[in-house]
Amino acid sequence: MSHIDDLSISYRLGRRYVIWSFRQFYSRIIVLGKEHLPADGAAIYGGNHLNALMDALVLLSLPAYTMPVVFVARADIFANAFFVRALRFLKILPAYRIRNGYGNLGKNAEVFDVCADILLRKHCLGIMPEGNQTLERKMHTLAKGMFRIAFSAQERMPAGETVKLVPVGIDMGSLFHAGHHLILNIGKPIPVSHYMEQYRENPATALNVLRADYLQALRDVTVDYRTDNYYSTFEYVSEMADTVLAQQMFHNSTTLSRFFARQELATRLTALEERTPEALNALQTLVEQHKQAAAEARLPAWLFKKPPITYLKLLMHGLGMILTSGVFISGCVLSGLPFLCSRQIVKALKLKEKKFVSSIYYAVSALITFPFFYLLNITLFLTLMPCAWWWVFPFICVQYPLGRAAFFWYHWAQKMALQVRYRRFSRKNPVLMDTIVQLQKAMLSNVLREV
After folding, report:
1. How confident is the model at residue 103 (pLDDT cuts 50, 70, 90)?
2. Mapping DSSP to helix (H, G, I), strand (E, B) and coil, where does residue 167 land?
């Protein structure tokens, strides 16, 4: 009898391509806590839910290629019978909620039994325990399904073995665009066996205790702006202060140190709201004034985190761009169309929910535009180029790296253009520039005291 977690050759090959292409979506992937990844299965990977399909691909990429990962997703995607077989191939099971009708809730028992069997076969589950995703870097109440599955499997586990709940913190430099960082912070697994004595006495209490512990474990590995009234203020202040606080805490400003700085800022701002809520009202006013001043300057607010770069640095960057312009031109010729078409397709879809933008962009790029145009490039090369056929192999090897290099060259050029505008603005508008700097100092004064 076949099981959903059986690994076919087609699935293995497809998974390798999906994980490789997923990693190309980001400029850099930093994985913390690799030592916490379980060596075998019987593990449930769960993370904060920010970004639709991209979050699931994070969980898919963590275990070894030989370890299948079965996902539990909302049942409404199974409404179309045409997709059911495809979803099973992708190893996705439905989870039913009240919105799917009370009559369907009973089906969860069967799904949970399948999930328990998967864990007993020492394989993995991937679950987003928050249930619904949001675009806020904020943890929400966790659904109970993940923990019911864990206890159900643990009850049937041989003595001395345990189901492990692995908290995965996901931090993305951008929730909408490619070419930004991705930080995966893997927490220490929580053994479900430690809760079984309490579970036998009172299942509901044990489930709630485990759920609370797992929520705290997720908060420890991600950025969690725990506020109901000041979320935009928390996020804005953190973005403006992370560089300075990273310098205070670690004496450097790297992608990783700024992530830890944002975690610390989230903690400080939460404490500030609890201790002196009136201070948050004043901080919110400063944030709005700073936003307005930055908008008047017609520059993104993050530019003002640092003084304008010197003319010498601008000159050095300009020379570097001239010297590497050949890479940009070659990359555009070979890969410009798939990049452009992917963006235009996503725009044409006019997605009402922004949370699906990067997922659709990734899927369109990885499954449609890049394979199509690269096959077209290879066909044209074999047809038109007056050289031996085997030259196609180095051609295949260089077209994507050149395209990726051109992509980052273009973003480099955009940043340098902004720096030129910033430099010109600071020279021509000293009064407004000073206002922005003073607002920034006042805005950050409560969170940038020495650690």
Report:
1. low
2. strand
pLDDT in tens, 127-144: 999 877 778 899 999 989
Quick one: 201 and 313 in the same domain?
no
Note the pLDDT tens digit of each residue in 164-209: 999 999 999 998 999 999 999 999 999 999 999 999 999 999 999 9
When pLDDT is averaged across residues 265-282 and rounded to a whole number, the result is 92
**Euclidean distance between CA atoms 368 and 390, whole angstroms:** 26
Residues 210 and 261 in one domain: no
Residues 28-41 have pLDDT tens digits of 999 999 999 998 87
Structure tokens at 449: 């005291």
| pTM score of the predicted model | 0.91
Q: Which residues fall within 8 angstroms of residue 406, CB to CB, at 6 or more apart?
A: 327, 328, 329, 330, 331, 332, 335, 336
Cα–Cα distance, 120 to 122 (Å, whole number): 5
Distance of CA 441 to the CA centre of its chain: 30
- 287 located within any domain: yes
Q: Are residue 408 and residue 384 in the same domain, yes or no?
A: yes
The type of residue at 51 is: N
Residue 436 has pLDDT above 70, yes or no: yes
Going from the C-alpha of 132 to that of each of 95, 103, 129, 136, 318, the distances in angstroms are 12, 21, 8, 12, 45
Owning domain of residue 156: 9-221
Q: Which of 168, 203, 221 is the last residue of a domain?
A: 221
Give the CATH number for residue 48. Answer: 3.40.1130.10
**Single-letter code of the amino acid located at 71:** F
